[in-house]
Amino acid sequence: MSSIQHAENGFDQTNSAHRADTGAAAGKDAAGAGHLTDAQSAALRSTEARNAHDTGVSDSGRWSTRRIAIYALFVALAIVTSFIEVPLMPAMPWLKYDPSGIIVLIAGFAFGPSAASIVGVLGFAPHLLMDPWGALMAILVALGLGLPSAFIYRSHRSRKAAALGLVVGALVALAVAILGNLIITPIYAKMSVQAVAALIVPALLPFNLIKFAIDGIATYVIYKPVSNLLHR
Predict the structure, then answer these.
(1) pLDDT, tens digit, for every residue of 163-198?
(2) What is the pTM (predicted TM-score) of this model?
(3) Are 165 and 149 in contact (CB under 8 A)?
């Protein structure tokens, strides 16, 4: 197999090796448990229960203390980054980019679609109090970006699947953003649907393409180091 194929199939190779080593160690512990006394077996089960509570694995489906803490960290990061707004098009300064989409994507890659949903929704919860229509748009776009990416990457953890997921997620989010602007923007911006439609080609389309390109490239570059850190 070529080095390129190894790279494509090994996007999460470190994590897989770690899980294999952990599984082997668990198997040895289980094999030796038959020679323990009843008291020792009870103590071993108690220790295992505490360990499961403290350090649940990302793909085990259990809500461990560690997983809840990591989700809370992702939500906090999404909230903070959602307030970092940078105009991407000087001619249209009201179209501002924030990097919260990167947080949603990394959470989805690391812990699956449920994490992308939680971070995508709660990350914009504070904005619901200040700008409910804008927050609703942001949540829908975040889900459109994060969920397809997380589903595709979960099905096959490789660089190729990650890239495909990011592209599909960007396309879905782009469609959600355009449709959302046509439906929601006229409600709160006091604009006609025709006026919003006239902005699609010169403003909405290029802005969102740039936005999702930044999110996708940044996620593709930094996800692996972040994943290694999360699964230590």
Answers:
(1) 999 999 999 999 999 999 999 999 888 889 999 999
(2) 0.73
(3) yes
Q: Which of 201, 117, 216, 137 minimizes the C-alpha distance to 170?
A: 216
Contact 58, 69 (CB under 8 A): no
What separation in angstroms does the CA of 18 have from each of 47, 63, 108, 231? 21, 20, 20, 9
Q: How many CA atoms lie within 13 A of 54 on its CB side?
A: 6
Helix 65-82 with 38-55: angle, nearest 10 deg? 10
Asked whether the beta carbons of 108 and 227 are under 8 A apart, the reply is no
Sequence letter at residue 73: L
Cα gap 33→40, rounded to integer Å: 9
65, 87, 81: which is closest to 219 by C-alpha? 81
